Each structure stands twice: as C-alpha cells, then as structure tokens.
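Per your request, structure below.
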C-alpha cells in the first residue's frame, strides 16, 4: 500500500466515456508578447480543440479575466504572481496554507518585480491567457487549468536553494524593483 502524501500524485478520475485525445497541440508563448496572443487565437480558431489547457493554477487564473479600462492601467498592473481581486484575503490565506510565509513573501516580491517589467515593456502580462479564454468561450472548448499551485512551486524552489542563494535571489529582486533603469521593450 502506498501512503497518501499531502501533495502527492493524484490518480486521474475519468468518466466512463473518457477517450484519450487523438491529437495534442503544444504552443509555446511569451507572457509579454502580442504575437503570442495572436498566435494562440489563430491556432485555437484553426484547430478548434475540445479542451484548451493553460499553464495557470487556481491562484493565478484571475489573470485570464483581467479587463482593460480606458486607461489600460489594470492590465499593466496584472502579473503572473499577483494576489488580488475581491477575495484578496482568501488568496493570501491560501498562499500561506499551501506554500508558507516564505513562499508568500517571494510571491509578493515577484509580483512587484513582474509588474515593473510589464510597465517597462508597456505590455500587460498574460495576454495569451486572455486570448485562450476568449477563443475557448467562442468555440465552446473546455478551459482547463493545467499547472500546480504557484504556492507549492515557490515553496519547492525556496527549499532547493541554499541560504546564500536565497539571499542572492532576494537582493536581485530588490535591485530589480528599485532600479531606475528602464526594462527592455517586449517583441
């Protein structure tokens, strides 16, 4: 008997009528590229898949629903690591429960850093995710969150680093956040 681990492999539940997919398409994207968003839309409309898997977890799924107002500000402030929305305190609590306080702190630092990159590039993060959501809705495809929780990823990343490496990472993030140098523009 295999002992159940808190975050171990989960056996896949499959309905009785489940069939393995005949084709799987993988599309690599850049989170800051307008071309990536266009390519996602073009491929999904051409292929018309039954399911679209996005590399997001529940904690980050909100980026697919970030909307633009006349000024464009909310999109430039959205990022891959943000904690936001109406359920902010629930998101913070979930982050602490899943990854611990250190992972939450790293997530917040990465959120500020990625917002700075997005603003410097004058491009919102994750436009390819928003394109995938829009087209999935248009063609009737099921949208699937296909990533493990970011909190677990960050916790594992932190545990893999030595204290020296953790210190260097935090210093690098703070330097990036406080730097007055403009970030390079995205393609």
């Amino acid at each position: 008997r295999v002992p159940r681990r808190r975050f171990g492999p989960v056996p896949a539940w499959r309905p009785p009528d489940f069939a393995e997919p005949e084709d799987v398409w993988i599309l690599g994207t850049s989170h800051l590229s307008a071309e990536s968003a266009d390519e996602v839309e073009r491929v999904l409309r051409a292929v018309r898949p039954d399911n679209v898997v996005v590399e997001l977890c529940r904690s980050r799924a909100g980026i697919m629903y970030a909307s633009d107002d006349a000024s464009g500000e909310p999109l430039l402030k959205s990022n891959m690591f943000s904690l936001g929305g109406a359920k902010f305190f629930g998101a913070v609590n979930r982050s602490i429960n899943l990854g611990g306080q250190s992972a939450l702190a790293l997530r917040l630092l990465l959120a500020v850093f990625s917002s700075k990159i997005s603003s410097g590039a004058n491009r919102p993060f994750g436009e390819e995710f928003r394109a995938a959501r829009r087209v999935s809705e248009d063609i009737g495809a099921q949208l699937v969150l296909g990533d493990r929780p970011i909190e677990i990823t960050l916790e594992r990343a932190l545990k893999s680093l030595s204290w020296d490496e953790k210190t260097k990472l935090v210093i690098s993030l703070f330097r990036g956040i406080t730097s007055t140098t403009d970030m390079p523009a995205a393609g």
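The longest helix spans residues 88-121.

Regards,
D.
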